[in-house]
Design a protein that fits this description.
By secondary structure, this protein is an alpha+beta fold. It has a single domain, classed as Multidrug-efflux Transporter Regulator, Chain: A, Domain 2, CATH 1.10.1660. 53% of the residues lie in helices and 12% in strands. A hairpin with a 2-residue loop joins strand 2 and strand 3.
């Protein structure tokens, strides 16, 4: 009797990335990724203790970076100073 096999199915497309996957996808360091998340520029969510970044949020973030010319170190520094001043 011939062996029956099931047809190969394509893997489902991921809808969200882990932090490590998002770091690789966006070419950002962990700190830069969390800076973008904490500033509200990059959406994310937690499921249990794990944080995920929706792929659509990554696509939108890239679009904004291209349109805005990116985020420079100086603009990040100025933003952090403004946050510290607001906290005092």
């Amino acid at each position: 009797m011939p062996e029956t096999t099931t047809p190969a199915t394509e893997p489902a497309t991921k809808q969200a990335h882990t932090v490590d996957e998002a770091m690789r996808a966006l070419n950002l360091s962990r700190q830069s990724l969390y800076d973008e998340i904490n500033s509200g520029r990059l959406a994310s969510y937690k499921y249990g203790s794990r944080r995920f970044v929706p792929v659509q949020a990554e696509i939108e973030w890239i679009g904004r970076m291209v349109a805005d010319g990116g985020i420079t170190t100086a603009s990040r520094r100025a933003e952090k100073q403004a946050q510290r001043a607001a906290a005092e």
